[in-house]
Amino acid sequence: MSAPAAAATPTAPPPVDLVNVQIDGVWHKFPKGTRMIEACKQVKKEVPHYCYHPKLSSPGNCRMCLVEMGMPPRPAPGQEAEKDEHGMPKIGWMPRPVIACANTVAEGMGIRTESVLTQECRKGVMEFLLINHPLDCPICDQAGECRLQEFSVEHGKGESRFRENKVKKPKNVDIGPRVRLDDERCIMCSRCIRFTAEIADEPVLGFTERGSHTTLAVHPGKRLEHNYSMNTVDICPVGALTSTDFRFQQRVWFLSETNSVCTGCGRGCNMEIGARGDTIYRQTPRENNDVNSTWMCDRGRLDFHFVNSEFRLTDPLVKTGSKHEISTWKKSIQAVAEGLSGLKGEEIAIIASARMTNEELFFVKQLARILGTENVDVIQRLGEGDNYLSAADKNPNTLGAKEILGIEPGSRIAGITELMSRGRLRAVLALGENLLKVGFERRDVEKIGFLTTLHILANATAELSNVVLPGTAYAEKRGSMINVTGRLQKLNKAVNAPGNARDTWEILRDLVVACGGSNGLYSVEDVFKGLANDVAAFNGLSYAKIGDLGIPLLETGETIPLLEREKERKSKGIIVG
């Protein structure tokens, strides 16, 4: 019998070909093919730019990234190249600048980002860009995060020699349902045009006319209305494209930005929540090359207005007779415990939500264990995904519910519905779901002897409930979720919950204690530690290890279409990525 073949040794990645490049007098090594602007960025030498974006092709049309470049002269036959004090070939500098965004580094290359020639070129380019630009910074939404403002201060002349009237262009143009155009502000960087053509596959934008009269426009019969249109607002370096929803709502320097993840679908796109006080004003994508690159769908970024809703539940309610009355948390929690007391496990059902965090689901599991019920499930939300970021699973934490509760999400709903219709359920806990909106019939819900709702908004199910507990929305709490690719990510608190609403995990913890469970968990970190000890998938992890970008936890085999296309474009050298 022959000996088993030895396991194949994994092949090492091909060696990276490094080249020596001098930047502002200092020699560095970079992989061959690195763009000059990226090489400068790596050594903290900023090269101002407008048209360049690492996720888009480089047209080189704004000319703001001009730098001085040089190469060692070719020595005469029989002679050696002249060396500098570092022992490197001496550089011969070109008499004209080159753009750093589209040129790549080479062996022995020299780059000057702060030379007299470079500075004069930037001043000249900036002067041209400002010739027809309107002086409306005080009313521009981009003020405070405008690259034109920043670079005009750092690299501009501080005065204009232009003595003619500025060219007037269309303002406040409706080019789509979620984006407005102020054409006078456009500096023709073409980022928006390239995004719609290269990323969104709907090339509806383009330039018309020539020279100083060049105008950004929508193609005849078209509109900028696809589900990723608002990314053009993010990448516009000036205030030419603005969000209809955010327009004139708030000055950006008043906003506090909080890192979090979108809960609009199972993708879990990384985002920043912009809030002032306890009001959310906008959500913008945050770069994570393992989840959403630097993009985000319009539906997800606008899915925050319900957090500011006037229909938010702000106090616990206990039904007395036929009316709800405001109660204290202690009395309302005790009312739930009394309503569940003495019931058998098969008489109780817990309908939780795959919109809940892992920490909240951990307490749902504990509560089910104490009550002795297996009638536990979450509501499925399946829709249509797209070929970019949007996932077909519209719940943000289906995998978390599956791992923690030990169920196939949605598999027990039919059984719970049948028990409810037959009047076999004497108590139901609706946690984060409006039962009358997710398929349950009112006549069946009315058969429940004791109904408790934990939700953030007033709803029809809450109206029928014996006890109503106001919880927290995604932007009002900390916690973790697992997206459809199996990545564990964190939510962070951006605003405070209204009124006397409490953190959902704290409410569930108090319910567990009131029903006979143990206490001792006082922070999300403590809860996650308990979760890591109880659920195999989380073993060995801590809340701190998740980090701002998350960590891979489960292998699902699902890929992200937009990232796959991005990898392909990067391998072809079309983008930096």
Radius of gyration: 29 Å
Reading off the top of the CATH hierarchy, the class of the largest domain is best stated as Alpha Beta
The first-to-last residue Cα distance is 52 Å
Number of helices, where a helix is a run of at least 4 consecutive DSSP H or I residues: 16
- Average predicted local confidence, pLDDT: 94
Strand order of the largest sheet: 16-15-21-20-19-17-18
How many structural domains?
A: 3
Backbone shape: elongated
Assembly type of the chains comes to single chain
Overall number of strands: 24
Q: Would you identify the regions where 5 or more consecutive residues have pLDDT less than 50?
A: 1-8
Question: What is the CATH architecture annotation of the largest domain?
Answer: 3-Layer(aba) Sandwich
Give structural notes:
By secondary structure, the protein is α+β, with helices and mostly antiparallel strands. The protein folds into 3 domains: 18-125, Ubiquitin-like (UB roll) (Roll), CATH 3.10.20.740; 163-308, Alpha-Beta Plaits (2-Layer Sandwich); 317-552, Rossmann fold. 24% of the residues lie in helices and 18% in strands. It is built from 16 helices and 24 strands. Strand 9 (205-208) and strand 10 form a beta hairpin. Helix 2 crosses helix 3 and helix 8 packs parallel to helix 9 (398-405). The longest helix is centred in the first third of the chain and has 16 residues, at 116-131. The chain is elongated and about 100 Å long. Mean pLDDT is 94; it is low at 1-8.
